[in-house]
């Protein structure tokens, strides 16, 4: 073998060794210099909430509001699917309602205050005309998409209760100045099958029908509804990569059942006092929006 050939062979061997060592280094160490733990990382990818670094701005926030149950009547095992999610993620154990009956709580979730909507559940306007903008308009004005999913509704942005549909559980129709915007961004009506994990809006606010939300039906019915609605989202690449968060709460009967889910959530109980205003601020912060009114959110205490 000629000297040139020997040097060429030696060079190939050295380069091969360098490539192998580099690959081993990538397998042994993370990009931040910490050692890889393949078993732990596989387990972490499988968990719903891991306390990972939160995104400055989420791509999607899914909010589901259920009805008229206390924390202990849902999250001590009576709703087994949601209880399991609570055990994996985070829940505020002192979540307080904004008013009574249902209507002012939904207005607070969409506007940050009840705006005189207490004491009645009348269809709009019904003495309840919160000012614009709502959180839905905030999202759209910022270039995002927002939809209020109305279980049991008969038309886009339906303002008339009937059958299993109750407008008192649907905040956006009460914003009179946004009615056209609400209708233009309305999804297909119905209780199931409307949330495609591959095509979520920036803000999805789900108002289930009177049975699915447990207003007229047992906790077990609502639990099965949540499982069917949310399981595909929680298994989606968007959620698993930390780009989507799912927030479930009930409207009234303090302390309200609630579960906060995202990869960045730190599992455990949140013992500080929480209300719908704080949840709205959390949604706004997660979508890089200014707060409509008031102060305080849940990002610091939850990891969202």
Structure overview:
With 304 residues, the protein is of the alpha/beta class. It folds into two domains: 3-36; 60-302, 3-Layer(aba) Sandwich (Alkaline Phosphatase, subunit A), CATH 3.40.720. Helices cover 35% and strands 12% of the residues. The chain has eleven helices and nine strands. The strands form three sheets. Strands 4-5-1-6-7 form a five-stranded mixed beta sheet. It has a two-stranded parallel sheet with strand order 2-8. A two-stranded parallel sheet has the order 3-9. A hairpin with a 7-residue loop joins strand 6 and strand 7.
Class inferred from helices and paired strands: alpha/beta
The succession of helices and strands, N to C, reads HHEHHEEHHEHEHHEEEEHH
How would you describe the shape? globular
Supply the CATH superfamily name of the largest domain. Answer: Alkaline Phosphatase, subunit A
Please give the largest β-sheet. Answer: 5 strands, mixed
Helix content: 25-40%
The count of domains is 2
Q: Average pLDDT, to the nearest integer?
A: 87
Q: Counting H and I runs of at least 4 residues, what is the number of helices?
A: 11
Examine the secondary-structure arrangement and name the CATH architecture of the largest domain: 3-Layer(aba) Sandwich
**Count of DSSP strands:** 9
- Poorly predicted runs of 5 or more residues: 18-44
Terminal Cα separation, in Å? 65 Å
CATH fold field value of the largest domain: Alkaline Phosphatase, subunit A
Strand residue percentage? 5-15%
Q: Order of strands across the biggest sheet?
A: 4-5-1-6-7
Radius of gyration: 24 Å
So what's the CATH class of the largest domain?
A: Alpha Beta
